[in-house]
Amino acid sequence: MSQRPSTDFRGRPVVAITGIGVVTSLGQGIADNWAALTAGHTGIHTITRFPVDGLKTTFAGTIDFMASPQASASDRTHLLAQAAVREAIGEAELPLDDFGGPLFLAAPPVELEWPQRFALHDAGAAGNDFGYARMLRTAGAGDWAEAMRSAEFANPAARLQEEFGFRGLPITLSTACASGATAIQFGVEALRRGEADRVVVAGADGSVTAEALIRFSLLSALSTHNEEPEKASRPFSKNRDGFAMAEGAGALVLETLDAARARGAKVLGFLRGCGERADDFHRTRSKPDGSPAIAAVHAALADAGGDETGIGCINARGTSTPENDKMEYLSLHSVFGDRLHGIPVSSNKSMIGHTLTAAGAVEAIFSLLTIRNGVIPPTINHDMPDPAIPLDCVPNVCRSARVTTVLSNSFGFGGQNACLVIAAEPA
Amino acid sequence: MQATAVRSDNDVLVTGVGLLSCLGEGVDAHVARLSGPDSATPVVDNDRFAPFAVHPLPEIDWSRQIERRGDQRQMETWQRIGTYVAGLALEHAGLKGNEAACGAMDLVVAAGGGERDQAVDEMILGSDVSRDARGVLLNEKLSTELRPTLFLAQLSNLLAGNISIVHKVTGSSRTLMGEEGAGVSALATAVARLKSDQSTQALVGAAYNAEHPDMLLSFELGRHLHHGAWKPFRQRGADAGGGVIAGSGGAFLVLETRANASARGARALAEVTAVAGGQATRGRARADTLAGLLTRVGAGDAQIAFGCSSGAHGATAVESDALSRVAPDAAQRFHANLTGTMRDAQFVFGCALAAAFLGANASPAPFVTGEKAASGEADAIAVAVAGTLRGEGAALLRRC
Fold first, then answer.
1. Bridge partners of A237?
2. Which residues of A touch B169 (CB under 8 A)?
3. Is A213 helix (H, G, I), strand (E, B) or coil?
4. N or C: chain B end with fewer CB closer than 10 Å?
5. B46 contacts B54 by C-beta, under 8 angstroms
6. How do beta strands A375-376 and A399-400 pair?
């Protein structure tokens, strides 16, 4: 192991993973999540955070054990990210208050929320104005710093920067459902370009509010399996009917292998390649021929210094929407050919739901754990296979397997596709 | 750091600029206006959102850059501005409609969001129900009244999505968020990718719509807006609010490696020699942080400096102080005096102005009566930003 070269096949610094941290609706921390994930548990449940009367979908993978139900999406996102980052830096045995490298955070778009809008409006009730005019007047006349904070996009990253001692201008980014993978890609590129020796990359999403849920409902994207929410997320099943919105956070410490070795860090695995490709077809639907997703997979494989023959397992995007799962199968089949049917392709989203902005980071971590622990988490709720998607999706029960290289897919609304190759050894 | 630096194939050149603001559309309109006799005359609407002034969009024929009406309808104004200005930049670079080039081009966008449906929000705010019943009211009204496509028309990463759909730019797609700092990160990301051979062409930029009460509210929550009619920065007193006047508009740059630009015979307006971002934390003074960034990008010999301050009292002082320390000879110009702040687009707009002036061999006239005149044609222009609340950034552009 000590003979590993410090640069990859293109002469770029090898990127090592030295710390990971995660929070999902299954629990907080790597140990609890992995135990629940491999046991096939679900974190999807009926929502209690806000009234669900009149909603088409009444469940989600909310995280109710960390923040108060009144917390804003921004505060909740920050709290989830903070927990994941703390675990990752702690595991990497780096200082928790002086990390000394940059932060790349995938975070959901934020805005003023309804409780704050009502409060602003109520505060001006004595005036004879109304609506936005009134809110603008009361905003200028009072102290609404907390409301302001929750509507600033830069806020969660700025708070993390202060807490953990990140360097430079922290990056906050969004590529919708690909965001977590994009954050990792940003970090990998910074290390390869020599801009830093170590980085924290994270994706966090605590944005399950009534309005967010309704907005996805209006696009017909969510499952409406309200009677049995634990069975709602059914990736690759014939009766899949949409995704389960969920919250979560994942964080990784990435270092150049040289830097990790120099400080005697334990290397957990390698971020071997990233690939991306944007779709120009439609705002929510992918190109019928799947070419952007196919190009993203190819780009990731090439960046990792290999081809499709090196992939032992695929951590699918697998959202459980009728269209997405079909397109993912078609795209993967185009890349892997009939060899695809011999590769396990599992979807963590069957258990944790779609953690949106966080998904790419959370699923990259589960991909790494698959390699480290020799266990592939199952795709649960797989009672009715879809004959049009003949995948080995590791149905319902986890599987022991020696896996050295995982492909993790993230394809997003707005056409942003990103794929990662995570491996036990560098290229 | 000097003008005599060795040329490299990976130098990052600006080969296209798209600009839109209350001052007009395109490079020529902005250079003419800002170097001419009317340079210090603002275009402002003091009444529509009184007591807040805004710098409005000029009249625009959207279909010139967004051909399909169906596409136009899928975007709120800020996305439409951005998609339009991206088209201007591609056209200026001679790459519009070049599917091979656009299909390999990086796309890096700085974006916010917002522009809610005012009527729906006000219907809900005006409903006479008890506090306890508000949750159920929200479910009912939002489910029935929200336009399904509004979500996407406001979503941060969908400006990039729309640019991919309308202009077919698909090589990569990254959306940075975080107010003024997002613009710094966007430019830094694009430049770094070009310098390290990850890409040969990039489209980078941002857009902002000030003419919406929701957008004004996002500033006023922090009491940042100036109250009352327009005045130049220095006359906006602390007794009349926070100093910010917002403006609608956007800026996009086509960046290209020197090798790629030469190979296709493209005319370059300027070289972006360096970009740096930072965030003053743990008690470090913001002006010290910004001065450090300006030094790092080599701004010392700049003859002109664009400060991208939103007009917020503290931010303008930080920029002016840092620029005076690092580039003492530079004539300072704060464009938001005339265009209003475009928040996420402010920094790229400053860089686009710098490229426009370098490319035109022109110098900006005073933006406010009495400002120091710029001495002749500039070889180097520094761009500095101190965000309304946080985030500092600097860039240096040189004649090429």
1. A385
2. 278, 280
3. helix
4. N
5. no
6. antiparallel
User: Does residue B3 belong to the interface with chain A, where contact is any CB pair within 8 Å?
Assistant: no
Bridge-based pairing state of the strands B106-110 and B172-177 = parallel
Q: Which residues of A touch B277 (CB under 8 A)?
A: 168-169
pLDDT on residue A427? 84
CA distance B281 to chain A (A): 6
The answer to whether A169 contacts B393, with C-beta atoms less than 8 Å apart, is yes
Question: What's the alpha-carbon Rg for chain A, to the nearest Å?
Answer: 21
Tell if the CB–CB gap between B134 and A161 is shorter than 8 Å.
no
Which pTM was predicted? 0.97
- DSSP letters, B30-73, are HHHHHHSTTTT----EEEEETTEEEE------GGGT---HHHHH
Which 264-303 residues of chain B touch chain A by CB within 8 A? 277-279, 281-282
Q: What is the pLDDT of residue A2?
A: 55
User: In this predicted model, what pLDDT tens digit does every residue of B52-101 receive, in sequence order?
Assistant: 999 999 999 999 999 999 999 999 999 999 999 999 999 999 999 999 99
Within 24-53 of B, beta carbons closer than 8 Å to A belong to: 52
Shortest CA gap B205–chain A (Å) = 14
CA distance A29 to B326: 47
Chain A residues near residue B223 by CB distance under 8 angstroms: 139-140
CB contacts of B139 in chain A (<8 Å) are: 51-55, 210, 214
Contacts of B161 in chain A (CB under 8 A): 278, 283, 413-416
Of A20, A12, A4, A9, which Cα lies nearest the Cα of A195? A12
pLDDT exceeds 70 at position B283: no
- Reported confidence tier of residue B2, pLDDT bands at 50, 70, 90: very low
Among the partner-chain residues A54, A158, A161, the one whose CB lies closest to the CB of B136 is: A54
**Higher confidence at residue A282 or residue B344?**
B344
3-class secondary structure, B136: helix
pLDDT by 10-residue block (mean), chain A, 427 residues: 84 98 98 98 98 98 94 97 98 98 97 96 94 97 91 97 96 96 98 98 98 97 98 98 98 98 98 95 89 96 94 97 95 96 97 98 98 98 97 98 97 89 94
CB contact under 8 A, B174 and A218: no
**Largest Cα span, chain A:** 76
